Amino acid sequence: MTLGVVSPDQALQTFKIDGATQWGKGRNSHQPGTNPMNASARLHQQSIRFFVDGTPEQILPGSTIFAVGSCFAREIERHLARQGFKIASFVPGETDDGKSEVSITNRYNTASMLLEMRRLLEEPDILADDALLIEQRPGSYADAHYHDATVGDKETVLGRRKRFYEHFQSIRDADVLFFTLGLNEAGYDTRNGLYRNMSPTVRELRLALPLEVHSFTVAENVAALHEIYRLVRTHCTKNPKVFITVSPVPLTLTYQRKDVILANMEGKSILRAAAAEFCAQVSDVIYFPSFEMAMSCDPHHVFRGDKRHINSDFVSSIVGEFVRRHCMALADSQPVAEAAETA
User: Fold this and answer.
1) How far, in Å, CA of 171 to CA of 167, rounded?
2) What residue ranges define each of the domains in the chain, with the CATH number in brackets?
3) How far from the centroid of its chain's Cα atoms is residue 126's Cα?
4) CA dist 147 to 101, 201, 288, Å?
5) Is the pTM of this model over 0.85?
6) At what angle do helices 218-235 and 260-281 cross, to 10 degrees?
7) Cα dist. 177→25, 52, 275, 287 in Å?
8) What is the band of 137 on the pLDDT scale with cuts at 50, 70, 90?
């Protein structure tokens, strides 16, 4: 199956686009006809804009947004909140040890996203009380359905799980859903056939618990996204606009016997290909190029010192571009440059 078919006439039309469909020879080339919109002229700067065909979907100011994804999704949430959007996926409060509960709800792989969407929207009992709980020491548990290995007694951990379930029923009334695909490796609990959000820990591996680490194919990711889409369209009341992107934040480590740089590139490539195939099959899902913006700009401007997490000012640039492209009414009332400076 092809992603798309381009006729000869359509192919000729691409040459009328202002340089963005051609790589070019760079902004400093002395060759006649050098175009500042050529890729070679736009790459590795502090910011970048991409060509968009047609009129992008528009979001009304004050819309309610629900974001599902990694820590990058949390950054997007914070910056969109400063633009006046209501963020239904925020979780107020802290854990007993002072950690923000927002980070606990991060979602990293499509299998874990799908499990949570099923639980929230259609099958509340899909996650049994004892499923994905890890006894760290006698009477103290972590919940691998979430991100941080925040421990507590069983009553506390299950109480948090119940509270998150109730809080995230807000997804049903969201105007916009934003899915950020993060990682392609996922922990799998062979005891109950459920995928974990939290990766296996060294301690768990040393204890030889019945865990596996699965790396997904493009087809498996696409299938998970289709099921998530079905759940959203079936149970969300406002027929929300759906955006999908790929997080530029790389792996912390890989469980495969390969260089983490190679494993990260492989995983991100699979997720990006899955997003492309999914969007080609479902016409009302919009891909937003957060990943490409980060990978195409000056890395010193994009990444923090750990070369993993994204500088807040660059996230602001990404959100500014999102506002410019998809929130025309907001961009008209508040210039994008000002919107970026807000953060």
Assistant:
1) 9
2) 59-342 (3.40.50.1110)
3) 24
4) 10, 12, 24
5) yes
6) 50
7) 39, 20, 15, 12
8) confident
Question: Which segment, 96-100, 188-192, 323-327, is predicted with the most confidence on average?
Answer: 188-192
Residue 114 is which amino acid? L
Residue 297: the pLDDT is 95
Task: Please provide the DSSP assignment of 111-139 as one string.
Answer: HHHHHHHHHHHT-TTSS-TTTTEEEEETT
Backbone φ, ψ for residue 15 (5° rounding) = -75, -10
**Please, are residues 48 and 296 in contact by the beta-carbon 8 Å criterion?**
yes
Residue 215 φ/ψ, nearest 5 degrees: -110, 125
Token couple for 252: 């912390």
Three-state SS at 77: helix
Q: How far is CA 312 from CA 19, 40, 70, 99, 148, in A?
A: 30, 26, 15, 20, 22
| Rounded CA separation 147/153 (Å) | 17
Residue owning tokens 């009553």: 155
Q: Which residue has the tokens 């080609």?
A: 280
Closest CA to 304 of 294, 296, 291: 294
Rg over alpha carbons for the chain, rounded to the nearest Å, is 21
Query: What would the pLDDT profile of 202-213 be if each residue is shown by its tens digit?
Result: 888 888 888 999
Question: Are 41 and 26 contacting, i.e. CB atoms less than 8 angstroms apart?
Answer: yes
